[in-house]
Design brief:
single chain; about 375 residues; alpha/beta; two-stranded antiparallel ribbon; 10 strands; about 55% helix; binds zinc ion
């Protein structure tokens, strides 16, 4: 397990990040078990046995996710001979993550289970990595690609984008649980996957123009996930369980692509920067994947790529493709597009290359129909 160090902010970041960035070798941290399907929560005891989990487990969840999945997980772990503590949280700011780490020090669990949506899973990643214990990802939503990735974003930290933490030891994803969630979560997940078209284009561009490392295998994996999602758009839109499974596997593959790359590069480019900027600009911002989907329409246009295909697929899902559907003002979209490259000057994308002024951003948003 990686050791941790303190940054200027109150959040500690895994030492793994330093290993990735400073040493002359490529380190990949991958999940050991991935179980996807209907009723997979019942597999918790056998996973615990295979992984040799003993002693004390801590479940991190919120009340709703605990009712949906956490209670079942807790019962299965107890019957497997583990003693279980749980921590039900309401918010997960950087302060909450720091408190969580104090709790882990007190309770001394051997393993942390993150049972919940993106915020819970990300907090489990960061806090378990810093406290040198493994974590197991039990997602309750398919709204984001953080289910399997080693990256995490924490509200209230000094970084509006994700930081490197640790990959889950195992992922147990139950489509039965996702089917109970709102359709909007599925839409957000689709947006996060479709975003890989522009993320990979940006990565290639950075390789060509600023000589950034480019991993063909990680890029292909991310791209393949987006292609499979588009090919199965009608299946996902039909709301059948098989469609959920396709989306879930695409999201997990994206997480693995990030593990292989050692960064979010294959999965996060200009469209993610647009989404992060919109988070800062608009108090009414939509879900992460919804914003990334619209961002991908805008930046695919700038890449002179097939932005219409991205827009049409999102429409087919019932996903937002305009500022109005995102619930934000037209001017906020323009401002976000202009601000996006400034959030991460080091992450070279088409927005850094073109350095668009406000007028050009507005023209882009208009040409793609994102603003009227
Ligand atoms: Zn994302």
């Amino acid at each position: 397990m990686p050791q941790s160090f303190k940054t200027q902010s109150s959040i500690t970041v895994c030492k793994l990040a330093v290993v990735y960035l400073t040493l002359n070798y490529h380190y990949m941290q991958l999940p050991r078990e991935v179980i996807v399907g209907n009723g997979t929560l019942e597999r918790v005891p056998e996973v615990a046995k295979r992984l040799g989990l003993k002693g004390k487990a801590l479940i991190l969840s919120d009340q709703n996710c605990y009712n949906v999945a956490g209670k079942v997980v807790s019962d299965f772990l107890t019957t497997s001979g583990l003693s279980v503590d749980f921590l039900l949280v309401k918010t997960m700011t950087s302060k909450d993550v720091a408190d969580l780490q104090v709790k882990i020090k007190e309770l001394k669990p051997q393993v942390l289970f993150g049972v919940g949506g993106g915020t819970i899973i990300d907090s489990a990643k960061v806090s378990s990595g810093n406290q040198n214990i493994p974590f197991i990802s039990i997602p309750t939503t398919v709204s984001h690609d953080g289910i399997a990735s080693p990256l995490a974003s924490i509200k209230g930290s000094d970084k509006p984008y994700s930081i490197l933490a640790q990959a889950p030891l195992a992922i147990i994803a139950d489509t039965n649980v996702f089917a109970q969630g709102p359709w909007r979560f599925v839409i957000s997940g689709c947006g996060d996957v479709i975003a890989k078209f522009t993320a990979v284009k940006d990565w290639k561009l950075a390789h060509k123009e600023v000589d950034e490392y480019y991993g063909g295998y990680a890029a292909s994996l991310a791209l393949m996930s987006a292609k499979i999602m588009i090919e199965n758009a009608d299946l996902i839109a039909s709301k059948e369980e098989e469609g959920l499974r396709v989306l879930l596997e695409a999201l997990i593959s994206c997480g693995v692509a990030m593990s292989i790359a050692g960064s979010s590069r294959p999965c996060s480019g200009s469209e993610h920067l647009f989404s992060h900027a919109l988070d800062l600009i608009s108090p009414n911002h939509a879900m992460h994947g919804e914003q990334c989907g619209v961002g991908s329409i805008l930046t695919a246009y700038l890449h002179k790529s097939n932005w219409q295909r991205i827009r049409n697929t999102l429409k087919e899902m019932g996903a937002p493709t305009t500022a109005n559907e995102l619930g934000v003002e037209d001017i906020e979209v323009v401002k976000a597009l202009e601000m996006a490259p400034k959030l991460r000057p080091e992450r070279y994308t088409i927005l850094h290359k073109l350095n668009l002024n406000s007028e050009a951003c507005e023209k882009t948003a208009r040409a793609t129909g994102v603003i009227a």
